[in-house]
Structures are given as C-alpha cells and as structure tokens.
Amino acid sequence: xxxxxxxxxxxxxxxxxxxxxxxxxxxxxxxxxxxxxxxxxxxxxxxxxxxxxxxxxxxxxxxxxxxxxxxxxxxxxxxxxxxxxxxxxxxxxxxxxxxxxxxxxxxxxxxxxxxxxxxxxxxxxxxxxxxxxxxxxxxxxxxxxxxxxxxxxxxxxxxxxxxxxxxx
Length: 168
What we know:
Layout: E1 2-11, E2 16-25, E3 29-40, H1 42-56, E4 66-71, H2 74-89, H3 103-118, E5 122-127, H4 135-148, E6 158-160
Parallel strand pairs: 1-4, 4-5
Antiparallel strand pairs: 1-2, 2-3, 3-6
Helix pairs in contact: 1-3
C-alpha cells in the first residue's frame, strides 16, 4: 500500500505568524492536519508539515510499503534528498561551514524518515510546483495559510476517502 503526504507551510512575514499543513492520503482514508506558531519562518513551517505528516503514518506501518511526501518546497525536497547527509557528516554545517538553519527540525524530520525506513517502508520526496492548480497542493496551501491567519472557520477533514470533499 502507498500513502501520499501533501505538505505545505505559510508565514505572514518572515518571521511572522505561520501555519503548516499535511494531508495524509491512504487508499481508504484522508487525514488533514494543520497547526500554527505565532513567530516563525516559512521554512520552519514547511518542515513542520512534513514532520507531522510522517508522524501520522506510524499507526499504519504494518500495511504500508511506500510513503511519498509531496512538497512545493525545494528547501524540504533538496534538504532530504541532497543536503542532509553532508550536513550530518560535517556536524550540521553547510557547505559554507556555517551552522545549518533549522537544525532542530531537520533532525526531527530525519528521525521520522529513519523510523519509517527501519520498519521496511520506502520514503520518497517529490517536488510539486505551487499555485498551478494541483488540487491537493492547493488544499495544503489553504490549510497552512488559514492556520497562519488563525482562522476560526478552518475545518480539517478526517474520514473516508470516498466522502472527501475534494476530487482526488
């Protein structure tokens, strides 16, 4: 079985109030997640969306072979597929020998990925272009933005995929 996790982050100011989102889609179920912080950056919110999405997968580990994280953040995608091993080898220093920003969240994200891989799951990272009409990316953006804005009317869906209000 494959799970898709659509993630996004938003910040009103950088730093400023921010929101994150993750939409976990199994073949049968959709789980929308979102949260906010009062003072943060867009990159931190992008990372938190991915972290929370991977954490949600934990209860399904006996049924899943593949987890695909879909993000509109090159920072998250390249961080996990190109940069993180070098950062770890260099003691969390970037190529310029300066400390890696958001090390705490990168460590958490790597831990979540490693935890899933340890139980036999394959985790892949896919970049999707933002704001081009990809339904799930647009929904993830809406959730993250509404969380950043502390919107009172945000309703997160958790339920059967066939009843989900977005065409998937």
